[in-house]
Write a structure and sequence with these properties.
The structure holds 2 protein chains of 2 kinds. By secondary structure, chain A is mainly β. Chain A has no helices and 11 strands. The relative contact order of chain B is 0.34. Classes of the chains: A mainly beta, B mainly beta.
Chain lengths: 117, 112
């Protein structure tokens, strides 16, 4: 089956640090990946849609200069949280569409727990 | 845009009993409805999905039903086991290129 690998699984860092999270599709190509944010005991909130070779599409209210997304290859998308602050602490999850199955379903990574001190 | 509601938010059942989680959606253009299981500290994993041209789908102990007219779909888990304990999310999508709209989640606890 389709596997999405997300790295790192957990990050703890000081306020003001920039943090990069990687999302890789291991056995399929993904022209589109999605980045979600999840607060404790809440649903997944779509932050942005990452398209290979083009600019990401951000959801309303998500700061594109704060959350930089790069999708440079068909198997890798990165999310960089720039100058992170405690309010950015959250669980970040990526997903990828497998075109071999018509883009459905989305396959999710195991998430990154980001804690800003 | 699409609005997906999910009930109940928490559900406790005895081992061996059945569990039912219900979702409604607002946009009749939605045509794909996956269900995901999320364990603590992990990403969501697909457990079953259904497309709008089908009314019911079953995979061993798990089944999903879809009522397009009423715009609701349900997850049914029979013979529940403690390892079924997790948070379950429903979602709706309008096509292969479109985003998923997630429900608010149901925390299922199966009591041994």
């Amino acid at each position: 089956g389709a596997v999405v690998s997300q790295h790192p699984s957990r990050v703890i860092c000081k306020s003001g640090t920039s943090v990069k999270i990687e999302c890789r599709s291991l056995d399929f190509q993904a022209t589109t990946m999605f980045w979600y944010r999840q607060f404790p005991k809440q649903s997944l909130m779509l932050m942005a849609t990452s398209n290979e070779g083009s600019k990401a599409t951000y959801e309303q209210g998500v700061e594109k200069d704060k959350f930089l997304i790069n999708h440079a290859s068909l198997t890798l998308s990165t999310l960089t949280v720039t100058s992170a602050h405690p309010e950015d602490s959250s669980f970040y999850i990526c997903s990828a569409r497998d075109l071999r199955t018509g883009g459905q379903p989305q396959h999710f990574g195991d998430g990154t727990r980001l804690s800003i001190l | 845009g699409e609005n997906v509601e999910q009930h109940p938010s928490t559900l406790s059942v005895q081992e061996g009993d059945s569990a039912v989680i219900k979702c409604t959606y607002s946009d009749s253009a939605s045509n794909y409805f996956p269900w995901y299981k999320q364990e603590l500290g992990k990403g969501p994993q697909l457990i079953i999905d259904i497309r709008s041209n089908v009314g019911e789908k079953k995979d061993q102990r798990i089944a999903v039903t879809l009522n397009k007219t009423a715009k609701h779909f349900s997850l049914h888990i029979t013979e529940t086991q403690p390892e079924d304990s997790a948070v379950y999310f429903c979602a709706a999508s309008m096509g292969t290129g479109n985003q998923f709209y997630f429900g608010t989640g149901t925390s299922l606890t199966v009591i041994p």
